[in-house]
Amino acid sequence: RQKIKPLYRLFIIIIHSHTIIRFTKMSNQNPYQQRQVAELPSIGTVGAMVARGIGQFAKRNKVVSGSYIIGILFILLIGSGTKLSTEQLRRYNHIMSTVDIQAEYQASDRYAEAMYAYRATKGWFSCDNICQANKRRMERAEADLNAVRREGYARMSDAKSVAGLFSEVGVDEVKESFWHYFAAGKRFAKRQSMWDAMFMGMRSMSRDESWIEYAIKMLLQVLINFSMGLIGAFFVFVFGLWSIVKSYQANPLSAAIFFIGATCAAFAFVSSYLFAIFGTAAGGIYGFAKIVETNARIEQGRRQNVQNHPHRY
Asked: Crossing angle of helices 168-207/129-163, nearest 10°?
């Protein structure tokens, strides 16, 4: 029998809160009608349920839980990376100073000018002699730009090999790459959620839904958008991670260890972030449902007293 994941199991309280809200509405329509208020589990019960679900998930998915633990240990052990010695820093700065950035700028400008001239003379389905000459000029400029870039990348790779993959230089570069994609994933989620809020609001008005139903649907959609954005950012980061590792010219064993550790660290951080936002959302819904439940019970008790002790005229 398949078991529900612990985070999604918390959202069962949405059904209870919806039942409580329906009871409140119906009791207002018929004050003497007896109805049973749904009882939500206590905080201790919910916490025990989450802990039990996490334990069962960890036992069933040992690879996932092991990767999470390795990622946390990698973050704690690596930290900011090993500090460069004075000799390493001198050699690193010396090699980096030989990278001709001005040459790359000039080659890039020549390629942009050649490409603009080629596109200006190119027809929809034809290319005359002037167009062909501009095309050859653009191809030569592109080849020169690629050659300059390859030389610059080779020199930077030599400088990185002096610093080392586990140094502060290597760790900082991997961190910058991760934060770049992580921020891009969050921007995607926020932008998508903005559009979803607009279109879901229009649909809710046409269906005459209550603001509570709209808020719950919107909350679930925001969680889905953040899950998609951050999981996608994680895979894009892992896809580009190997090129960073390879640029440090480390031995295969060190490169494999760093790649696996950095991948597990990214997985641990993303999963922890998603767990936090899902837990916060579930806690907010639980607190709101508890307030609704309390108010419904007070209302039910008051109406029962009115029914048991009618006014006499």
From this structure: 120
Alpha helices, DSSP H only, in 122-167?
129-163
CB atoms within 10 A of CB 33: 11
Q: Mean pLDDT across the stretch 14-25?
A: 48
Label residue 124 exposed, middle or buried (CB < 10 Å: 0-12, 13-18, 19+): exposed
Write down the residue that tokens 């010695």 correspond to. Answer: 85
Span of 140-144, 193-197, 249-253 with lowest mean pLDDT: 193-197
Q: Which two tokens stand for residue 49?
A: 């349920």
Phi-psi region of 115 (alpha: psi -120 to 50; beta: other; left: phi over 0): alpha
Q: Is residue 21 over pLDDT 70? A: no
Instruction: Give the pLDDT confidence score for residue 38 in this predicted structure.
Output: 58
DSSP letters for 272-304: HHHHHHHHHHHHHHHHHHHHHHHHHHHHHHHHH
Hey, what are 200's tokens? 């879901």
Q: What is the mean pLDDT of residues 62-70?
A: 90
Give the residue-averaged pLDDT of 200-209. Answer: 69
Q: Report the distance separating Cα 142 and Cα 110, nearest Å.
A: 9
Percent of the chain with pLDDT over 90: 47
Is 59 strand, coil or helix?
helix
